[in-house]
Write a structure and sequence with these properties.
- The chain is 30% helix and 23% strand.
- It has helices spanning 20-35, 84-91, 94-100, 107-120, 185-189, 207-219, 241-244, 249-257, 260-269, 280-296, 391-394, 404-423, and strands at residues 10-11, 13-16, 42-45, 124-126, 130-136, 141-147, 150-156, 158-161, 165-167, 179-181, 199-203, 224-228, 301-304, 307-315, 318-325, 331-336, 338-341, 345-347, 354-356, 359-360, 383-386.
- The strands form five sheets. The chain has a six-stranded mixed sheet with strand order 1-7-6-5-19-20, with no helix packed on it.
Length: 424
């Protein structure tokens, strides 16, 4: 749904961003409004012209790394109409999916599921609308945004900030026609001017890097594909049952209540569940490809391990990469048609758009409560929430899909509780 600006209207909730986290919140609002006497009047602002979940990384053969049950609603309410299973039922594929005998749908199918949910949720969504400033007043939040109709404002009692993650390039690397981040791979590849060298380079050692390597090696059967990373080998991701408990909803309580030093230890222990780690099946597939090529004496896949890039120079006909081997300090110049940086993401800094009666929020740095509500200075009764990106205080799951359903229930519950307290 699309809504026009109505400055005199005061919403109960304005959501900034409409990715999976705030979409999960929207489904919770939708289902609350179906049965509750007091409805939640909500609007969501999304900078993209339409809903989309990493469309540039929907590579053939790439699968989700979390169970389909960790969808928008199941862990909140398995009877919800917004579960992945109900999506399968409505698409007429539930039996066929069961026959796959997997918990992990393809990324393409999960993207379609999210699109399906975005299309059917009964909340107001303003696409192509970017929030540029969030002013927290005593009991109201005013969001200034830019959209198709120019600059406008939205006033609400609560704001939920869920702008998602921002792609990260290494320091000193500027994006260009031949140098880009993997998050928009499919679109960027189609715009590479030419392929005179017949080579690609992929920088990074995580799951995305492995998937990009496989995709390039398969899709360009005559091209060389060079993998570059500073570790000696790909690290297998730890998806064992005990380690996966770090993503359980109940773990958020334990994490939030732990000391800072213990949180740091847990992050260090379990980084391989999510960061710079690759599914063992994908590692084996890449190694098998490299080995078979060495047997056939026709190499196309090259792994430059324990290596770092000293310089990247993008030209009109390609990119020159100066590599150095960290073990023997040997230097190599590599000429490729494009460099793909699979170098991760960082959480959006919500304080960059927060203001308190005109004072920039960056100077305030409010803490985040267990219910994801920012602890604002005294005198501010408005609600400001962060929907994700609080790994330090709430655990590894905060930047993933793992608990979006439960977190949505926590945030909506907090909004309703504070509303009752104000009325009381």
């Amino acid at each position: 749904m699309n809504g026009a600006n109505t400055q005199s209207r005061v919403y109960d909730l304005v959501g900034v961003g409409f990715g999976p986290s705030n979409l999960a919140l929207a489904t919770a609002v939708h289902e609350h409004n179906e049965t509750a006497a007091e409805r939640i009047d909500a609007v969501f602002l999304e900078s993209k012209p339409q809903f989309g979940w990493h469309p540039g990384m929907l590579l053939p053969g790439s699968a989700m790394q979390i169970s389909f049950a960790k969808d928008l609603a199941t862990l909140r309410d398995p009877r919800s109409a917004f579960t992945f299973f109900n999506y399968l039922h409505e698409r007429g594929r539930i039996v066929d999916f069961v026959n796959l005998q997997t918990f992990f749908p393809s990324r393409r199918e999960f993207s379609d599921y999210l699109q399906w949910a975005a299309d059917r949720v009964a909340v107001e969504v303003r696409y192509a609308t970017t929030a540029v400033r969030v002013d927290c007043g005593e009991d109201r939040v005013t969001v200034t945004c830019e959209g198709p109709q120019g600059v406008s404002t939205v006033v609400a009692k609560n704001v939920v900030l869920g702008p998602g993650l921002a792609a990260v390039l290494p320091e000193g690397i500027a994006p260009g026609p031949r140098v880009f981040h993997n998050h928009n791979l499919l679109n960027e590849l189609g715009q590479v001017p030419s392929h005179p060298h017949g080579r690609f380079a992929v920088v990074g050692a995580g799951q995305s890097a492995g998937e990009v390597l496989r995709y390039l090696h398969t899709s360009y059967p005559e091209a060389e594909v060079h993998s570059i990373f500073s570790k000696f080998g790909f690290t297998p991701s730890d998806d064992s049952p005990y380690a996966n408990r770090v993503f359980d909803p109940d773990t958020v309580d334990r994490w939030f209540g732990a000391s800072e030093s213990v949180r740091e230890r847990m992050l260090s222990y379990h980084r391989s569940t999510n960061y710079s780690a690759v599914d063992i099946e994908l590692i084996s597939d890449l190694y098998q490809r490299e080995y078979e090529e060495s047997v056939a004496q026709r190499r196309r896949l090259y792994v430059h391990n324990a290596s770092e890039i000293e310089r990247v120079v993008e030209g009109s006909d390609g990119v020159t990469i100066d590599l150095v081997d960290l073990m023997d300090r040997k230097q190599t110049a590599l000429h490729v048609d494009a460099v793909v940086y699979a170098t991760g993401f960082r959480a959006f800094d919500v304080t960059s758009i927060l203001e308190f009666d005109g004072a920039p929020g960056a100077s305030v740095r409010p803490e985040v409560g267990r219910d994801y509500r920012l602890l604002l200075p005294d005198g501010y009764e408005c609600g400001a929430y962060v929907n994700g990106g609080v790994e330090d205080s709430h655990g590894l799951s905060s930047s993933l899909l793992s608990i979006v359903a439960v977190r949505a229930a926590d945030i909506l519950g907090s909004i309703r509780t504070h509303a009752r307290a104000v009325v009381g």
